[in-house]
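Aim 2 progress update. The chain analyzed this quarter is reproduced below.
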Amino acid sequence: MTVTSPQTPPSRPVPRLPEELVASATFLLKRLGFAAKERAMAAYEETGLHPYHHGILILLGEGSRETQGSIADALGYDRGQLVGLLDELEEQGLVERQRDPNDRRRHLVRLTREGKRMLRRLRALSRQIEDEFLAPLSEKERANLHALLLRLAEKHEPRCANLKPPAST
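Predicted structure tokens:
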């Protein structure tokens, strides 16, 4: 599958943004974030899942049986929203929930075999989306961009603190 962006019809010229906006790094981050999200949503739609589902599967793929609350806290999801997302994943046979034997009020969640297969598929999709979005950049530029974004994220998104970029090859 090739991830594509919506194209402006060739008969209409693309309007230019004001220079002052394009000169703003935060404006560009916001606009590029919207563009990346739009492409990702279209690609994930073909899987029947959402990037939020992918985040849950990644967390569970780390190997531990997580409680619903710890999943919501780790990913920054609303706990009520998480229950609905887990319901959807469970309906598709990607996760299983069971009562915590140590605390019957809590549910433990784990990936199923099918969930592990879907996680591999979503990881490949995510790499493809990123490769296509970052295609204009060299590998070195991608690594530099990631390092800069990680520095900003460490300051403005506490869940990213103390994470190191992957070693470049």
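Strands lie at 66-67, 95-100, 103-111. Residues 118 and 124 are 10 Å apart (CA to CA). These observations will guide the mutagenesis experiments scheduled for the next reporting period.
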